[in-house]
Amino acid sequence: MIRSYTYTYKDKNDLLNFMNMHNFSSNELFVIKAYLPNWESIEVSQLKKFLLNFLPSSVFIIVNTSNKEEAFLTFNHYGALAETIQYEKINHLENDFAMADLLNIATNKYLNLSKKYDEIKEYFFSVVESIPDIIFTTDLNGCFTSVNAAFKKTFALGIDELKGKSALSYVLSKNVPIKRYFIKAIRGIPVQFELNLKEKTGELATFIMHLIPIIVQNNTVEVFVIGRNITKERKIEKKMERIAYYDADTGLPNRMKFDEVLLTRIKRAKKGDYEFLIMFLDLDRFKTVNDMLGHKSGDKVLKVLAKRISSIIPKTAYLGRFSGDKFSIILPEGTQSEEALRIGHEILQTIQMPLHFESQELYVSASIGISSYPSDGSDNVELLKNADAALNRAKQQGGSTIVFFAGEMNKETWQRIEIERSLRKALENDEFYIAYQPIIDAKTGNLSTCEALLRWDHPEYGLIPPMQFIPIAEEIGLIHPIGNWVLKNACKQTKSWQENGLKHLSVSVNVSAYQFQNRHFTEEVKEALDYSGLEAKYLHLELTESAMLNHTMEAINTMHMLNELGVNISIDDFGTGYSSLSYLKQLPIHRLKIDRSFINHFKTDSPEYAIVNAIMTMGHGLGLNVVAEGVETKEQLKLLKQLKCDYIQGYLVEKPMQANKFAEWYYNSNLLSKLN
Fold first, then answer.
1. Which residues are in the PAS domain (predicted)?
2. Helix 479-499 / helix 466-476 crossing angle, nearest 10 deg
């Protein structure tokens, strides 16, 4: 039975009190007829929203109000929604009218909702069709139910061909668990993943896929899929990764990438409790190749060598270019030392094969250092440091060899670091001094020259051998100021001795290859002579063969400029290098110094005797004086005199001594007796 309530409108608060007084319930149906004379449409709309906020299941109807003077509302109450459509005998006529009203209202509402639905649907599909991403929907079995224009354009497939067909069969991938993702989506969980799909052109494109469940009344009814083509972005990312993680010259992983991979291997090894080995490989004296061919050509040589190394190592090994001419290798897990040694020797052999480059035949060698996880280091820093220490030991042994890390190498590494640190302050702290060793005439016993020999008296470690600190000084660039200091002070001391009685004494100063190659070297020699007042003819510069052979034309020009100054030039350690006779004829050389290694085992029937004899003959044939250094016995002296050696230097004459003892020694020695 319909209950009706009439209310004369005052304001919204009063209206709300009226509704509360009559216990209007939000889940009941009311047909609200509104008589609102002269009300603006906006006011009517606000009132409608206010009422339907409290009675959402009700219908609001505006009634013609032309004959009314005041606003009032009629609330026709039909009870709960489930009870509204029933036929009662009581008040049958009233019910008929009410149901007719209700049916009219419901029909109009349905038509409006249907129209609104069509509008929303048209709007939705208009948006979907205009989106450049591929979009399609599937039913709960994974079959296509719709596709957008971008999908048709990308794959040349429309809904007519796809209707009822499984989308999974078109996008199935071994690398991506599509079925698992789809099951998640129909369970109401949105999913995102990357997928490679073949476009109509036949090319693979990368898409970022979004599976979005369409849920109605808490149940998934369809799956909405959006796929964005990110192929260009991925290509850019790969290009950026290539730049960041790979070496441009060889194409190998660079130091940063190698370090990342090594960290991953260490984590995996910790988890699996297994060992593995890493190698450091460094090319021996590769600077010579760069100097000869130029750095660009040198990089091409490195590319060839990288391919050679790659062809030797196991497929599961990891090869990178660590820096410069240094390569790093992670050997497969479980590789034993014997196998690593075999691989290393094969690498060295393939590197030593001739390189034919720019009409030249080149030969390169390498050294290898090996460390083991976890015995030689439990992290990447320690492993690499120890492999590098082993590599340095291999190079110290002359190169072309393989060395496994041993704990003692760390001590040597720290010593080297300490020497380098101290060396930077040694000159400033006045820790260097010069020792002088006499060189006498083999016939007369007269003092001819003294060789200036640099010594370093470290405040903590005492005397450090030149062979230990000179290579470090060369490496870190300190050889230039140190060499210049020796040159100036040796010239100054010699001038002082001349002024005090040793009138014709000359001094012989060793010149490092790095020092000699400095374009300011000739000027430094001039400054040393001016500083000391020593005449140029009393200065001998001792150069090694390698110093002269590097940058040959520049070396020849520098020697000629020094010769024009009046300076004498000697070749030190002669016989240990690879001097060409054709070069020797071109060079303004005055002396050859036979290396002490030939004098140590110098006997009549020894190979050394034949070599020394050949050097004497060649030197005299070129008009050069010959000096034998390292002479310690009377037997050596006798044989050298027989071969007409010009000058003698060694412990048989005297050991190197400090400047303040040199003059005293000279005046108290009978040098002629040394020759008898």
1. 120-168
2. 120
